[in-house]
Amino acid sequence: LHRIPRPPYRLPLLGDVVGASRSTPMQDSLRYARRLGPIFRRRAFGNEFVFVWGAGLAADLADEERFAKHVGLGVANLRPVAGDGLFTAYNHEPNWQLAHDVLAPGFSREAMAGYHVMMLDVAARLTDHWDRAGAAGRTVDVPGDMTKLTLETIARTGFGHDFGSFERSRPHPFVTAMVGTLTYAQRLNTVPAPLAPWLLRGASRRNTADIDHLNRTVDDLVRARRAAGGRGGTGDLLDRMLETAHPETGERLSPENVRRQVITFLVAGHETTSGALSFALHYLAQHPGIAARARAEVDRVWGDTEAPGYEQVAKLRYVRRVLDESLRLWPTAPAFAREARTDTVLGGAYPMRRGAWALVLAGMLHRDPQVWGPDAEEFDPDRFDAKAVRSRAPHTFKPFGTGARACIGRQFALHEATLVLGLLLRRYELRPEPEYRLRVTERLTLMPEGLRLRLERRAGSG
Ligand code: MNH
């Protein structure tokens, strides 16, 4: 550890908290990263955390022979909510492999093509809502509305459920409870563990109530499906969780595990995609030239097709680059943890014992000037044209994590977000509020705070 730089001011007991803020741990780490270099450590309340963002070291941590996902910090704090669900399961828990094998076909091409029509349906509810706001000259709440959209999308496609988000003026109570548990899980990292029950007494009680609410919502949903006698092989995620046996072992998910998985997918399946769409819309509004180029692509590829087909989404190459570039600057799951599977030496320089772990700061890896150049802070979708991607080293763009435990919903998220950006670009000109400056809130995931846009309906857009 002594080889790894750390901040100069260290308080007894509290550790490196000078200049740190409780509500923006990730953005603080980015500041430290710039000062301390490609690997550094921070101490908080008796624990030493190692952060890595240099491209060479991050690539080494992606070596699945020597490293694996580490369930720690924020992820471990979600165990009371998500238990051994896919995202929070320890590598050695048998339910990980079981659920992974049973649910992976739910993200195949064929499955995705089946979700496409439902995605279009939910997007139409968003554009109805935005048409009304646009016509009345009102600005729209981008993160709020993207959260409604992505929650309805995963609920519809995965579970045949309708939260009615667009018919409500306030967020659905499920969303409020979810944001509560995410915020609480993050706050647990900002107080000394032994004092947490005392310091966070009130918050802990609210968190228990939030978890109860999530459990109840999910139990109702499962009960309704069981009462309806399954969906007779429509093969959505819930169907797979309830009906599908493992192809080799014949094993099924237990009712308790199904509950964990439903919560996992409802949360993991919308919060990060909502942020990604929101950042992309922010950058499109700030860069009219880029928006015009993306819009021209949509017009060219989709023409007058009222409802673009599944195949027509992946053809929006430039729109997809806008999304990638937004996820580069603000990967909405901003870090992931890796642990050593055996005693090893990271990057040929830093010895690690078996079980030792480090956090990969994707948000900083994606800005490493050695990879992305001196203009790494600038928004430029052309960084993702085919030639540029081929010339870049592997493991330099990691918004979806890495290896066996990488995001299972990646194609789902990319399809949904590209489709929605295409539909919105085709329908509206996006105007920023003149005084808006990007501020990013953190609740384990990232979101542009207070982002509102003014919409102008384009001529001839339906
Ligand atoms: Mn997703 C894992 C980012 C969309 C379901 N997701 C991960 C990880 C990252 C991630 C990073 C790995 C975390 C780790 O190593 O600890 N996910 C994203 C981003 C988006 C996203 C940036 C959108 C943009 N994720 C989705 C969607 C779904 C989903 C959509 C579901 C429909 N993600 C998961 C699940 C896991 C995961 C489940 C855990 C996979 C596993 O460990 O097997």
From TrEMBL:
Keyword Iron: yes
InterPro entries reported for this sequence: Cyt_P450 (IPR001128), Cyt_P450_CS (IPR017972), Cyt_P450_E_grp-I (IPR002401), Cyt_P450_sf (IPR036396), Cytochrome_P450_Monoox (IPR050196)
PROSITE patterns: CYTOCHROME_P450
Keyword Cytoplasm appears in the UniProt entry: no
Keywords per UniProt: Heme, Iron, Metal-binding, Monooxygenase, Oxidoreductase
Homology family: Belongs to the cytochrome P450 family.
Protein name listed in UniProt: Cytochrome
Natural source organism: Streptomyces ambofaciens
Organism lineage: Bacteria, Bacillati, Actinomycetota, Actinomycetes, Kitasatosporales
